[in-house]
Amino acid sequence: MEILKLKPEQLYNKCDESVFDFSTTEELVPIRGIIGQERAKKALQFGLDVTKKGYNIYVSGPWGTGRNSFVNMLAEEQAIKRPAPSDWVYVNNFKDPYHPIAIKIENGQAKNFINRVNRAIRFLRRGIIEIFSSRDYENARQKLVEEYNIKSNNIVENLNDLGEKYGFVFSLTEKGIVSIPLKEGKPMSEEAYNSITQKEYETLLESSQKLSLETIDLFNKLRIEEENLRLRLKSLDEQMGRHLVKFHLDSIKEKHKENDEIKRYIELLEDDIVENLEHFKEKDSEVDESNPLAILAMTQENNETFFERYRINLFVDNSEVKRAPVVFESNPTYYNLAGSIEYVNEMGVMKTDFTMIKPGALHRANGGYLILLAKDILTNAFAWKSLKRSLLDESVSIDSRAAFSGALVSQTIKPGPIPIDVKVIIIGDYYTYLILNEYDEEFQKLFKVMADFDVDMDRDHESIQKFARFVTTKCQMESLNHFTPGAVALLVEHATRLADNQGKLTAHLKTLGDLIIESDAWANYYKENTVGRAHVQKALEEKWLRANKYEENMLEMFDEGIYLIDVDGFKVGEINGLAVIGVGQYSFGKPSKITVSTYQGRQGIINIEREARTSGKIHDKGVMILTGFLGRMFAQDKPLALTASIVFEQLYSGIDGDSASSTELYALLSDLSGVPINQSIAVTGSVNQRGFIQPIGGVNEKIEGYYKVCKHKGFNGDQGVIIPIQNVKNLMLDDEVVQAVKKGKFHIWAISHVDEGIEILTDRKPGKRLKSGEFQAGTIYALVDQRLKTLAKDAKASSKSSSKSTTSKEH
After folding, report:
1. pLDDT at 297
2. How far is CA 545 from the centre of its chain?
3. Most distant CA atoms of the chain, gap in Å
4. Helices (H), 356-421
5. CA 742 to chain centre
6. What sign has the CA pseudo-torsion 37, 40, 42, 45?
7. What is the pLDDT of residues 704-743, one digit of tens each?
8. Are 464 and 492 within 8 A, CB to CB?
9. What DSSP element (H or E) covers 124?
């Protein structure tokens, strides 16, 4: 079977450094973006270009493929083409303070608007005091008061005319008009009043009651005059105050004449100031700082607290933003995403107002792009629902934080929602995308574009040249020594090994970036100004050395005979299988002895791993396929009266996968035929019911693992591994293994059918079925067929004997 042996050049796809036209990577232009991923690029670009509702983007792909940086780069490029977003402010709703008003202002103008309003309020506070202290105001006010006094004095005179008839006189005091009894034509003194008799008191009371009835109309007139004075004084204040207020506020309206929301707010502000002129008239009083109680009282009654209502909350300030924003929120909690309302503790009670409303990532990204990680937003309570609600409503509503905390709240608010126009990009893995797409109906409506990052890319000339430029980019970003062509070639080869395909390069650029940094570290260690192939090789060896403790422990156990395995000689029903063990980011191959025992019975093939519950479903399926192969090949003219037990010896941690199914089949055929298997050869490969070999994973680790065991136990020149022919393209073996194959110390066979594998292992033809129905004499299949016939006859005879015995007992 020499034709099935692989040549050394088939075991490794070497990168010829002559393809690089540079002496070091310093001569190359850094690459912008990532290598490959054309499908993901087109999907991302399409999603960014579509501005309609629902065309948000889910970016799928494994960690380390450059998803985050590439998404951010494309978003930044797209953001440059879009205008800078508007500013947003929250202002007091004078009519309903519970619902603050959100106002949209042209980009960069919010600060100017706030400054103008603040300046107007400062001028008004001084100007109103000056106006109401002016001689003109005092004269106008005095005139109104004098008119009132004249009318009120006339009314009092009329009251006195009536009062004389009943023995009373009216007097105007600070507390109002009071009636005083007369005695001998003069107002009665308090002493005289206290000394009157009961009869005189009753007479006064009767006269007072009659007088009250007579003077009702006059007192009503007096009250009307008092109310008229109050209204005239208020009208005077409003007239003089509004004139000053309009003078200062109309200029602000003119500055923002195209913004209807600002014009409405200025009108409300004007009305509120005029209604509260009394607060503007008050001067700041001085406080005795030596008196703590006075300070406390002043703090509680400070007029400044009133003027908080005229402050403006600069909610979103985009004055420094010159294009659409790109926001990456690394901690998308509910409040970081949708904004929050802060509170202050006053005497154990939580209070807030419109100045304590804070923006979230959705507000900051409004008019641009918001980038989130799926694992972050899906693990934050309320955040995911809030994001979907905001995207569906196309607006963000801010809820009170205290509502969730259970704190004692005396004052809260419900800010008006802010409309949003934001493109959300969620970065996650494909499994999360499938779950959301299957079970979240709103996700399907909102994230209609999926950009899927691949795990590898084609290894062609263009990709290799871009890869070299990626090395340049990494060196410049991290301030590293530049790489020689030989060093870049080895990086390409390692990228191919990670891709597990000779025609591919891994897209896991993060892993390669780490290797570039480590290679530079070794170049620095050896005091070299450039990174050569030897430095990259050293970095790889040291990386493996840091992680291969368990592999070395395993090899020691093979040396000491704790793990039982034969790498030479021939044995019946025994074969060397191969498995892959993963420890963190390091994987290695581990040979295992597989043994088979066959005997008479009807239980079929018993998977001992399954019975012991140490095997997975795929491994169980692989064992069941063996029954199908045996039935098709040997049970067309007789039943399979067979019991066979298969076990991975000294395997205690469990096993899964069907990559050992062909190996188990070879051991089964060996035990049935009685022909021994060459223990120098290990096998991996899946098999179907027709006997065709199917590809498996981890082929490099498996071959290298068996090679190391053979190296420890000693080479005999016959050792090697049988692999599926489909896995030849996956071979990127260690140079030591390649050299051993070149020298004939180690061998690798690539097969496509069980027939080829059994011939390599036993050095005997598998055999073909003749027209007579029999297999060629002396072949493996002929011996197996003969054994199965014998087992079937014995089973039939045993069944008849058992049946006769049962009949005899019944009689």
Report:
1. 46
2. 35
3. 162
4. 361-364, 374-378, 383-393, 402-405
5. 51
6. negative
7. 999 999 999 999 999 999 999 999 999 999 999 999 999 9
8. yes
9. helix 110-131
- Which residues, including other chains, have CB under 8 Å from residue 93's CB and lie 6 or more apart? 99, 100, 101, 354
Beta partners for 600?
642
Q: Is 301 helix (H, G, I), strand (E, B) or coil?
A: helix
CA distance 189 to 727: 127
Can you tell me the distance from the alpha carbon of 18 to that of 332, in angstroms, rounded to the nearest whole number? 49
Residue with tokens 């071959």: 703
- C-alpha dihedral (172, 174, 177, 181), degrees to nearest 10: -80
Nearby residues of 30 by Cβ (< 8 Å), 6 or more positions away: 469, 472, 473, 476
- Mean pLDDT computed over 445-461: 92
Cα–Cα separations (whole angstroms), residue 356 to 310, 333, 681: 14, 19, 75
Long-range contacts of 131-135, Cβ-Cβ distance < 8 Å, separation of 24 or more: 131/240, 131/241, 131/244, 132/237, 132/240, 132/277, 132/281
Nearest to 79 by CA among 296, 304, 325: 325
- β-pairing, 57-60 vs 423-428, is parallel
Which amino acid is it at 787? R
* Tokens found for residue 708: 């190391």
Contact residues for 324 (Cβ-Cβ < 8 A; gap 6+): 78, 79, 80, 81, 82, 83, 84, 85, 367, 368, 369
Residue 664, both tokens: 């188990």
Burial code (b: 16+ CB inside 10 Å, e: under 16) for 706-728 equals bbbbbbebebeebbbbbbbbbbb
pTM of the model: 0.80
Cα–Cα distance, 593 to 682 (Å, whole number): 9
SS3 track for 674-736 = CCCEECCEEECCEECCCCEEECCCCHHHHHHHHHHHHHHHCCCCCCEEEEEHHHHHHCCCCHH
Contact partners, residue 3, CB within 8 Å, separation at least 6: none
Q: Give the whole-angstrom CA distance, residue 559 versus residue 570.
A: 20
Give residue 663's identity as a one-letter amino acid code.
T
Cβ-in-10-Å burial (0-12, 13-18, 19+) of 570 comes to: middle
Q: How far apart are CA 577 and CA 662, in angstroms?
A: 9
Residue 585 pLDDT grade (very low, low, confident, very high; cuts 50, 70, 90): confident
Q: Which residues of 260-298 are buried (b: 16+ CB within 10 A; e: fewer)?
A: eebeebbebbbeebbebbeebeeeeeeeeeeeeeeeeeb
DSSP one-letter code for 4: G
Torsion angle of C-alpha atoms 342, 348, 349, 355, degrees rounded to 10 = -30
Burial track 439-451 (b if 16+ CB lie within 10 A, e otherwise): eeeebeebbbbeb
Question: Does position 686 have pLDDT exceeding 80, yes or no?
Answer: yes
pLDDT 10s digits, 515-550: 999 999 999 999 999 999 999 999 999 999 999 999
Per-residue model confidence (pLDDT) at position 140: 83
Best CA proximity match to 470, nearest among 37, 63, 80: 37
User: How open is the CA angle 155-159-160, to the nearest 5 degrees?
Assistant: 120
- Above 70 in pLDDT, residue 619? no
Q: Which residues contact 368 (CB under 8 A, 6 or more apart)?
A: 75, 79, 82, 85, 324, 325, 326, 327, 422, 423
CA 2 from centroid of its chain's CA atoms: 55
Phi, psi of 666 (to 5 degrees): -60, -45
Q: Under a CB-based contact definition with an 8 Å cutoff, are residues 604 and 640 in contact?
A: yes
pLDDT-derived band of residue 449, with 50, 70 and 90 as boundaries?
very high
Q: How many CA atoms lie within 13 A of 469 on its CB side?
A: 15
Contact 685, 577 (CB under 8 A): no
